[in-house]
Predict the structure.
Amino acid sequence: MKAMLAIISNALCRITGKNVLLIDLSEYISLTSPAAPTLAQTQRQPPKPPPGARVVVSRSFTDFTPQATFDIKQCDLHRLEEGPPLKAELTREQGLQYYRTMQTVRRMELKADQLYKQKIIRGFCHLYDGQEACAAGIEAAINRSDHLITAYRAHGYTYTRGVTIKEILAELTGRKGGVAKGKGGSMHMYAPYFYGGNGIVGAQVPLGAGIALACRYQGNNQVCVTLYGDGAANQGQLFESFNMAALWKLPCIFICENNRYGMGTSVERASASTDYYKRGDFIPGLRVDGMDVLCVREAAKFAADYCRSGKGPIVMELQTYRYHGHSMSDPGVSYRTREEIQEVRSKNDPITVLKERLLSNNMASAEELKDIDVAIRKEVEDAAQFATSDPEPPLEQLCNHIFCNNPPVEVRGTNPWSKLQSVS
Amino acid sequence: MALSLRCFLRCGKNAVSAVRQRGFHRSVPAAAQVTVRDALNQAMDEEMERDERVFLMGEEVAQYDGAYKVSRGLWKKYGDKRVIDTPISEMGFAGIAVGSAMAGLRPICEFMTFNFSMQAIDQVINSAAKTYYMSAGLQAVPIVFRGPNGASAGVAAQHSQCFAAWYAHCPGLKVVSPWNAEDAKGLLKAAIRDDNPVVFLENELMYGVPFEMSEESQSKDFTIPIGKAKIERQGNHITMVSHSRFVGHCLDAAAVLAKDGIECEVINLRTIRPMDVESIEASVMKTNHLVTVEGGWPQFGVGAEICARIMEGPAFNYLDAPVTRVTGVDIPMPYAKILEDHSLPQIKDIIFSVKKTLNV
């Protein structure tokens, strides 16, 4: 405990530039023990702080609330008698983990924004900040061996599915250390049980239903989470997928991340019905507050249980919001007001919502969360360093990975004398 | 048993295939007559038996036994799990097939004809063909897209297009176009075992045509390598390159030309992509003349690609005349029989083109 306080105290000194002394109050005040009277007799006086120092009080970790139950918003239901529970349990560990995850995604996306503006990232870059609770909540509800596929706003899920920040940023900057060796870019990142990252709007939905078919075929009790946006919700291939998934009872959780805008078109201007959770028609659906990680988690758990029980697919609409425009080439303010963005940020930010819950229920301290922030910033900064300094993929690898498990083939270059090699 | 014996004595060689159709486990005779349809059926049956990840999906493939009866008997043998009737949703079920391949299965996705594959072409190209490259080798897509391609008989413009050039244009795909029963069986087995997306272009008019299949080709492990052409007929005067049904036309034309003393070398491409240009070059360096024959349209077609490749390679210097392309007429396919007959290469067109190329 003393060592911990010393470390933190040193850190605070460095950060604030002031002399700071941390003392462990538990030696002087017992907050929980009924044997306080006996302690009082042996109580010591707190040490006198050195001149010019400020005393910052810390509490030992045993004083935090280990677990709490929170009321969460009720979900709107379609063809369901019952929905997810109205209360969510959260342990301190989980709270810190969700906080870490969301904050990491947030900082990673903001770093990508920065790198894009510096022209170190090129092409398409669709950022996820504002929607973190969706990725974090879903991952908390499913197993690592469940499957997940999404569209192009994929960096958050790439992270929650296990790819490191380093590999994500290096892929964005097109370096050989990227998760796809620099050959995929923002929209084409893959990992075990994570199928990207898909550029064609809506195409990932039949793919997700197919992954679910494989789960059912193999009898492995796994589910596939298939994500799409409010824009993709009007694609015909979605309805083809709904039909087949329902017909064959595929364990597919279709999730619409409704962030209110498909590129520059608001949902009211794109959809005759904006009840995206009902669009599955014969498939049951629920509409969920996508800014609350606990809501998302409980709903996703409910959905996963539903699918695993063999009842077939289910549709989930997550009402969420993106702070950035559609992509980095869209300022995002021509079709919505800055006031709207600001309002969501101040009232509904997923990280703030969780933070306030943790603090007001004594599940974490402000300093602790701040330390996490600092650590994450450093991690993201290190990853960005790597992503800007790692070399680009070597030209010899230009033609590789055309075919899998294939003997090397010759590939025509830009002119007949340019004969390139492709290995699997 | 007595019945089949009587059949055999009465009907001669046709009876052999009749007997074959009745069961799947049969003793292996020496060379036998097998239709292309049965060869495809055997290929799928054997591969499904060999690997339980292999399954078939498409419209009418299960309970209807296949729109062209290619999958006859498979549903009865393997059941709903492995032979799946889909609704009429090409984009959806092609995507589902690709997704299942990504997650570890080995689907055979049937398009009732490749004309309908246009509905799903995004899934074939963007989700299947490009994924291994985009993921730098992390995500393979072992899938076969198969079905009849090109002109049939009297089905008019929307049902008669040849897609060989369209699919062969795209890196990441293998495109295969069998001609006879041996091609059909060996190449389909190879395609199913291949860990990459393969577009398998069949031909409806060939389904019912019987061919002799060697004993070797009837083995359960018989495969034909994808990417290798076959010389169907040796010759010294001119090389003819073709694929699918028109290989037969080339051989018929060669028989007629032989009477005039012109010996044609007929090459059956078997695979459109990757194309076996080396075999064509070796032949051209021997014969000095080249004619390509295909059912598809001339512009940007298979013949056009062969011309370009020959020009870029060593065989150009051996040509005594420019390469000639014999192709379908550059129009949507008409319906009336006389018009349809004149929309595709006939034997006389091939003979005429050979003689023009040889300047005789």
Q: What stands out?
A: Chain A is about 40% helix and 15% strand.
